[in-house]
Amino acid sequence: EPEEESEEGIDESGIPTFPECTKSYAYKKLLFSLCFFHSIIQERKKFGPLGWNVRYEFNDTDLEVSLHWLHMFLDEKEEIPWESLRYMIGEIIYGGRVTDEWDRRALLCILDNYYRPAALSDDFRYAPSGSIMSPPDGPLASYLQHIDQIPMNDDPEVFCMHENANIRNQMQESTFIMSTVISLQPRSSGEVAGVPSEQVVMLKAQEIEEQLPQPLLMEEAGPHTFTTLANGLPNSLSTVLLHETVQFNKLLSVMVSTLALLQKAIQGLTVLSASLDLMFTSFLNNEVPA
What we know:
By secondary structure, this protein is an all-alpha fold. The chain has 2 domains: about 25-170, Region D6 of dynein motor (Helicase, Ruva Protein, domain 3, Orthogonal Bundle); about 190-285, no CATH class. Helices cover about 50% and strands about 0% of the residues. Helix 3 (about 80-95) runs antiparallel to helix 4 (about 100-115) and helix 8 (about 235-265) packs across helix 9. This is Dynein heavy chain AAA lid domain-containing protein.
C-alpha cells in the first residue's frame, strides 16, 4: 500500500478542541506547546541524518496520548508536574519509539525547551528570533488564527538546526526534482546534437576507461607504509590506508567490468541489462552512474 505522506510545515498540526480542565490557561498554553513540539520532531525528518540519526514514525496517536496525560496531570495535581510531564511525554510516549541515544537526547532537549514554566507566558518565543511567539489566551478560534500567521517557510532555527542544514535539504529536493524531470524525457530521440546517443555513450565510456588508473598493489608500497608499532600492533593510519586501498581496488574492478559490458551491449554483443541501461542513461545525461 502506498505510504500516506503528511503535509509539510509546522503550521499543519492544528490545535485540537479544548476539553474542560481545571487549569484552563495552563492547559491551552501547554497544549499549543505540545502540538508545536509534535510538529518540530516530525519536520526534522526532512533534514535526513542531520535531523535524526534514525527515521522515526511519530504519528497523531502519540500526540493524542500525550494530550490525554497532559489533561489528566493538570486536573489531578495542584501544581503543574513538570518533571512527570516531561518524563511521560519525552521518555515513554515519544521516547518509546527512539532507539538511538543521541536522538533521545535531542528529543528531550527540544521537549525541555517547550515544557517549562516560561512556556506559560504570553511573550514566550518558540523561535529564538521571535518569528513564532506564544499565542495570547483566548478561544480556540484565536489559536487557529495565530497558527495561520506562522510563516510558511520554516526557518531552521525553529527546529534547533543551523541555517546550513537547510542547504542540504534544498539540494536534496532540487536533485529529486531534476532527476524526476530527466526521467520524463523521451529516450527515443536517438541523437544528441546530431550524434547518435549510442556513439556519445560509447565515446564517453572509452574516454573514462582510458583514464582509469591501475589497481594499487601492496607490494609496491614504501618500506615504512605498513609497519607495526613496538607492541606488535599495526599503525592506525596504516590500517585505514589498507582498508581504503582494498575498497578502491574493488571500485576500480567494478568500473572496469561495467564499462566493458556497456560497450559490448552498445555493440550488440551482450544483453543490455537494467543496470547497464541506467548506466547508459546516466552517461547520456552527464551524471555519475549510481
